[in-house]
Amino acid sequence: MFRMLPYSTLEVGNPAGVEGNLQMTGTISLDGGANFTFNGASPQFTGQLLPDSCGVLTIGNSNGVALTDTVTCSELQIPSTNSLSIADTASLTAWTGSVNGTVVNKGAFSGSSALSFANGSLYQHDRNGGNIPTATWGTASSCLITGATSTAPATPTRISTTSPGIVRDSLPV
């Protein structure tokens, strides 16, 4: 049996994600308050064993981590040079945290004003419609809209599609 308790941390280095790290027979129990750090040396998937809710989700892989499921985390940390890609079938809700690296969103990503995109960070909205996450945006952060084909994304009240740092590669008129 493998059991993670609240506030414990699993560092995931396997490209296959959590299930790649926990290759075992028997019961696997991952508490919704546990923390997960993806820090592999090659591109990674989060995997299907990542719980629907977690404490701190840290993306520490400069080769990229792909989120392939629905997850709510109390805190998201993406240090500079690291990147997270949210698949078109995936959803991420982050209540707080700091993005210093890159988020490429093909699915759904929501945040709160306690989530911040620091100077030098990049949020790429690579889907039609959807929402740009609510967050505090650094003046030198970037929001790249690339996937809008017929419907522009909804923007939070503190950001507009004409704000500095907004690049509209495919924004419908």
Describe the structure.
It is a single chain. By secondary structure, the protein is an all-beta fold. It has one domain. 2% of the residues lie in helices and 40% in strands. It has one helix at 18-21; strands at 2-4, 9-12, 28-30, 35-38, 44-45, 53-59, 65-67, 70-78, 83-86, 91-94, 97-99, 102-105, 108-110, 115-117, 122-125, 136-137, 142-145, 166-168. The strands form three sheets. Strands 2, 4, 6, 8, 10, 11, 13, 14 and 16 form a nine-stranded parallel beta sheet that branches. Strands 5-7-9-12-15-17-18 form a seven-stranded parallel beta sheet, with no helix packed on it. Strands 1-3 form a two-stranded parallel sheet. The longest helix is centred in the first third of the chain and has 4 residues, at 18-21. 36% of the residues are buried.
Summarize the structure.
By secondary structure, the protein is mainly β. Helices cover 2% and strands 40% of the residues. The radius of gyration is 16 Å and the shape is elongated.
Q: For the report, how would you describe the main beta sheet?
A: 9 strands, parallel
- Which sequence of SSEs, written as H and E, runs from N to C? EEHEEEEEEEEEEEEEEEE
Instruction: Return the average pLDDT rounded to an integer.
Output: 89
Structural class: mainly beta
Roughly what fraction of the amino acids lie in strands?
35-45%
Overall strand count: 18
